[in-house]
Amino acid sequence: MSYPRIDAVLNPPGPHGVFLGSRPVRGKGVFRHEVIVDWPCYWPRPVVWEQTAEGFRHMPLRDAGPIAITAKAEDADTARERLRGVAANPPAYNAATDNCQHVAREVVLGRRESPDVRGVVALGLGAVALAALGSLPKPKRRRRRT
Asked: Could you tell me how far CA 64 lies from the centroid of its own chain?
């Protein structure tokens, strides 16, 4: 009997479940690509699901490259039900509303969120606030009468 290659995972998870995994995005600095790792107890080879600009796809873990496991679904059955729903009706990729983080976190954690999008929005708002403060007229100084 052959076992799955765990060396493809940087920090291997417990034996079975639905996991949130991530890896750096080549050429995009601090941004992270997040994936779903489904490792059913009845199947010896974990499967990686990911949302990309080309669509929602899956592949064996051994073909996915190094992935760091960052979270585990509290209820694997509920997470697999959400995964089946996304696989049956995949969303169109949109960097702001339907990127890999939105989809992976919705399936594994039950929350539709993207830390990268939230960070970019916060930086943008901060830049707008600084620009607005820089464009305010400076108060005039009163001259002292002597």
From this structure: 15
Written as six digits, the tokens of 117 are: 């999008």
Residue 35 makes CB contacts below 8 A (sequence gap 6+) with: 20, 21, 22, 23, 48, 49, 50, 64, 67, 100, 104
pLDDT at residue 61, rounded to an integer:
87
Q: Are 21 and 36 in contact (CB under 8 A)?
A: yes
76, pLDDT greater than 80: yes
Cα distances from 96 to residues 29, 54, 79, 84, 104, in angstroms, run 17, 16, 23, 23, 14
Amino acid identity at 104: A
Residues 72/17, Cβ–Cβ less than 8 Å: yes
